Amino acid sequence: MAKKPVAKKAAAKPAAAKAATTAKKPAAKPAAAKAAPAKKAAPAKKAAPVKKAAPAKAAAAKAAPKTATTTTLRQMSVEIAEAHGLTKKQSEEIFADMADRITKRLKKGERIRMNGLGTLEVRKRPARMGRNPATGESIKIKASKKVAFRVSKELKESV
Asked: Where is this region: Disordered (predicted)?
């Protein structure tokens, strides 16, 4: 910021005055030198963590392409239709009906065991005390239910 006013004054003054302003510039450098050590200390502390974070980002970037693709029920129904000589519409209806039946049974509280895959069941989560992260205030979290999938031993071993 100090350099901009000096440049404006130099343009307005004659050549002799420019020589005087150049003599003032060394006085400005010590002021910059005083600020420089403070700047050097702060980046030196931050430089080490940044270097550690960079390899983690590189590892995350390498891991990103390895993520699994998502297969939908519709895509699976098309494969089943081709493998068993069904129409796509018939196989989509079968998969939709299966999803509806699984949902109804889970609502009743039943467990669903799928051989070779695992078991679907509803688990009850008890009420508990929690904290609002913004205010730190204690809040009561009410009881709820969640659907849990427990993987079978065969699937674990095959993957």
From this structure: 1-71
Distance CA 95, CA 90 (A): 9
* 6/87 Cα distance (integer angstroms): 82
Element (H, E) at 84: helix 73-84
Quick one: tokens of 92? Answer: 């989509």
Which amino acid type is present at position 105?
R
Query: Quick check: 95 and 76 in contact, CB under 8 A?
Result: yes
- For residues 117 and 155, the answer to whether their CB atoms sit within 8 Å is yes
Q: Which amino acid is at 59?
A: A
Identify residue 155 by its one-letter amino acid code: L
In a domain? residue 13: no
Is-above-0.90 flag for pTM?
Answer: no
Which domain range does residue 76 map to?
Answer: 72-108
Phi, psi (degrees; rounded to nearest 5) at 152: -75, 160
Q: Are 101 and 128 in a shared domain?
A: no
Q: What is the pLDDT of residues 125-137, one digit of tens each?
A: 999 999 999 999 9
Residues 6+ apart with CB under 8 A from 138: 129, 130, 131, 132
**pLDDT, tens only, 61-74:** 455 567 889 999 89
What's the number of domains the chain is made of?
2
